[in-house]
Amino acid sequence: MHDLEIRGAGEVLGDEQSGEMTEIGFQLYSDMLNEAVRALKNGKEPDLAAPLSSTTEINLHVPALLPSTYCGDVHERLSLYKRLANCKTQEAVNDLQEELIDRFGKLPDAAQALVETHRLRVAAVPVGIIKIDAHAESATLHFKPNPPIDAMRIIELIQKNRHIKLHGQDKLRITANMPDLAARVAQIKTTIRSLLN
C-alpha cells in the first residue's frame, strides 16, 4: 500500500506499472474507481464532479477523540479513526467499541463522545441530516435539500413536541436542558427515531 501511495497504481487496463500520484493517494483513487464502477453497474453515468461521500458534521461541544493516554500509538489511533469513519451501521460502531474496550480498557469520556458522535452520524443518514450542533440548552438539526423523509413527519413532530420548532427552511431547533453528552445524544436520537417512525 505504501509503495502504491508513492509510485501510483499505473494503468488499470494496460501494461504500464507505475503512474502519476501527485494529485491523489491510492485510497482516494480506489474509492473514486469503486464509485464509478458502482454507478455504471446501476446504469448511471458517474458524476465525477460530485463529492465522493458527504458525511454528517456533528458538534456536541465536548472533546471527542482517542486520548494518547488511552491508545498510545499514533498510527493505531489514526487507523481507528479511519475505521470509525468507515462504519456504515450501528452494529459496526458497536463492534468497534467492543474492540476498543477489549484492547485498551474502559472508554474515557472523550473516547465515549467519539463513539457516540459516530453513532449519531450513522443514525442521521436515513433522514438526510447533514449537520448536528448540540449545546447545553439547544440542538440544531440541519437537513440536506429534499431530505429522504416525508415532510408530514416533520410537521407531526413539531405539533407533538412544543420544544421542537422549525428554524429556517431546512433546520429543526430543539430547546431542552442537555447539560452533558448523554442528555444531548439521547435527545437527538429520540428526535431522529420520531422522524423514522
Give the strand tally.
5
Please mark out the parts with pLDDT under 50 across 5 or more consecutive residues, or reply none.
none
Q: What is the string of SSEs from the N terminus onward?
A: HHEHHHEEHEEH
CATH class of the largest domain: Alpha Beta
Which CATH architecture of the largest domain is right?
Answer: Alpha-Beta Complex
General form: flat
Beta-strand proportion: 5-15%
Summarize the biggest pleated sheet.
Answer: 5 strands, mixed
Instruction: Classify the secondary structure makeup into a structural class.
Output: alpha+beta
Give the % helix.
40-55%
Please state the average pLDDT score.
Answer: 85
Number of domains: 2
| Cross-sheet strand order for the largest sheet | 1-2-3-5-4
Number of helices: 7
In the CATH hierarchy, the third-tier topology of the largest domain is known as: Aspartate Aminotransferase, domain 1
Task: Report the C-alpha radius of gyration, rounded.
Answer: 20 Å
Oligomer: single chain
CATH homology group of the largest domain: Transcription-repair-coupling factor, D7 domain
Distance between the termini: 44 Å
In brief:
This protein is of the alpha+beta class and 197 residues long. The protein is built from seven helices and five strands.
Mind explaining what this structure looks like?
This protein is an alpha+beta fold and 197 residues long. The chain folds into 2 domains: 2-41, no CATH class; 57-196, Aspartate Aminotransferase, domain 1 (Alpha-Beta Complex), CATH 3.90.1150.50. It is 46% helix and 12% strand. The chain has 7 helices and 5 strands, in the order H-H-E-H-H-H-E-E-H-E-E-H. Strand 2 and strand 3 form a beta hairpin. It is flat.
